[in-house]
Specification:
Glycosyltransferase, 13 helices, about 50% helix
Length: about 325
Amino acid sequence: MNQRNAIAMGARFLEARQYPSGEFRDFRAYGSPGTEWVSGYVGFELSEMPGAETYSPLRLVSSYVLRSQRTSGGWGYHAGAPTDADSTAWCVRFLSKTLGLRSHILPASWSTLHAHKDPLTSGYTTYLPSVLQPMTQSGFCHASPCVTANIALSLCESREQRAVEAVRQAIEYILAEQEQDGSWTAYWWAERTYVTSICTSFLETVGQRGTAHDAATVWLRESQLPDGSWPGGAFGAAYGINGLCGTRWYENESHLKRAADYLLRSQLKDGSWGAPPLLRVPSIATQARWHPNDCEPVLPALDRVFTTAAALGALCRLARLPM
């Protein structure tokens, strides 16, 4: 199978899993599937497809995301959950790509994201402390590299003056949080490929291609498994690709080809990709980020919607490289 066919099959799978209202669903955190968060994420990845501007499922999910925006300007895990910054960032990044900066909804959303800035670290928290009182010491309210990088990538789209300083401070936070081996750790994910990839992509986007970026790239290359994947199966392979698809992609060409081959081999007959449990759902009292001996609950993407969107988006990005 070639990449074009794999992308087409993945798109058909996602189209079949889309609800008439336009939403996508996956995971079952606290017994309920993610909808607003998952829809923003899937929409963002679907917008990487060739001809996305005329793709009807994309217009449908865009309409759903617009309708589900809260009066605060943000979005949450689902309609019954509080606004959170990571869900908001994915929805904003999606709408920025499909609607552009002309959209009247984005300034309110950016204000919501700015409100989640941690004054102590200049990183960004998932939830505002006011939402979780009296559990303000929860890791839910602590700054996290994966959330910060995602928000900063969203703010890069803003033309507001305050976004310039916010992005500069986010760079400082991301650099300070990097581990000695070049990776980053996350609060919400039970592996390091996703967070390291999104932090690497952020540094690439803002032109920070120095020592930290190089160390992260080396970590991504060296953590690739013999079968071409990364820890996290197809999801890990997708983010291994995303993290290595930088301006020096040619230095990573062999790693990218091995990852693409893995995704082609691991695609299921229905066009989807599965992955082992990855979404960490810690107790609200938990402060620490994930570590290899962590015992907090971890959930799989049972509907395979989230993992399929990740793999499809990565293959679309890879297809644009002159390999």
